[in-house]
Amino acid sequence: MRPRYLGAAAVAAAMMAAPAPAQTAEPIRYETFTLENGLRFIVHEDHSVPVVHVEVWYDVGSAHEPPGRSGFAHLFEHMMFIETENLGKGEFDGLITGAGGSLNGTTDKDRTAYFETVPSNQLNVALWLEADRMKNLVVNEENFQREREVVKEERRLRVDNQPYGKALWEVMDTLAVDYGPYEHSVIGSMADLDAATGDDAREFYERFYVPNNAAVVVAGDATVGQVRALAERYFGSLERGPDVAPLPPVTTVPRMDGPREVTVTDELATLPLLAEAYTVPPHDHPDARALALLGNILMGGESSRLYQRLVMQEKAAFQLGGGASSGLGPGTLQIFALPNQGVDVSRLQSLLEEELARVLREGVTARELEKVKNQHRARMIMGRQTVSSKASQLHHYRVMHGDIDAINEDLDAFMAVTAVDILRVARKYITPGNRTTMVVKPAESST
Fold this sequence. Notes:
By secondary structure, the protein is α+β, with helices and mostly antiparallel strands. Helices cover 41% and strands 18% of the residues. It folds into two domains: 31-235, CATH 3.30.830.10; 260-445, Cytochrome Bc1 Complex, Chain A, domain 1 (2-Layer Sandwich), CATH 3.30.830. It is built from 16 helices and eleven strands. Strand 4 and strand 5 (112-119) form a beta hairpin.
């Protein structure tokens, strides 16, 4: 059939047609079961491709570290890949990669995660490996000493030898929040790492790496029946460990004790940096969604409020970033800006405060709110394209929301946030009494 020519009237009519309804995130369906030893399983079946993702979260992060042992959660992320009573050094990685899979691990303040993506006919291998290192990890002085040096070198590369590294990781990240478990960085201090022993590591493993302090998500080409049978086979005989006490309640958000200011000299920096932070509540707080959207309105890309004002209009900054983040404990709404050459930090700070005051006075526009909602919707939809991302989300809602069902309700809650909500949280948290300001100066400009 030959194509038809559409005249101007037809084109105009087509453009005026009702817009397509906004896409929604497809619900993530799952089933759960718990073994007698307390190990929880969450299973999401997705048979679209012959791949399965196994992700284990231990409910231990840097917030759970004993005093004087900062960095242990991250150190154990390394230790868990080394050696078990059944596997020699390097064999864990080799079994996964040899099966055509991939693997990794991450640590943050509230949890430590380990994950593998493998062909679905290798699910038994992935689950056996996770059970083996949950029960049979070799925590001896040799392995501990070697991995401690690896972690110390990682700290040098990521913190000590990076411009602004210590300032952002250790000063700003802890000064703004009055919450004991978060008062040290995830990567830990050199002094604490140097003082630790192999016995300390063994005690940490036996205390936190137990079935009742972990959960396993299996997402992909597997059935609940398959997973249940393998779970009983490989994990069922593991003994329950001591119960881990929950983190203390949060009572200090927002702060009301007045502005906090600090100036840091950085030997590695070539430009000054301005950072501001406002303490915000934990992730499951009713204000968290409005704060997340406010952070994106202020700093979410080149069309954001602060980028347009500080970078595009005033030419006062050439780089800007930040946003709202939190966990089981309080977090921050942070703003970072690097001034343009010849621009004094005080002018940059003055412009920043002017723009924040305008938000507190006038609120945000309907168009701004619609934009960040659309961006959030798109991120959530894109985040459900792979079994690995869906597995991480299932864990996230279990831990951060205390309710896995929230995975299918959260988008609607974000879409229900109003401009009135945004103005309310802005006025509640963006206050002088809740503000922490840090100025980083290059060494040559400190005199």
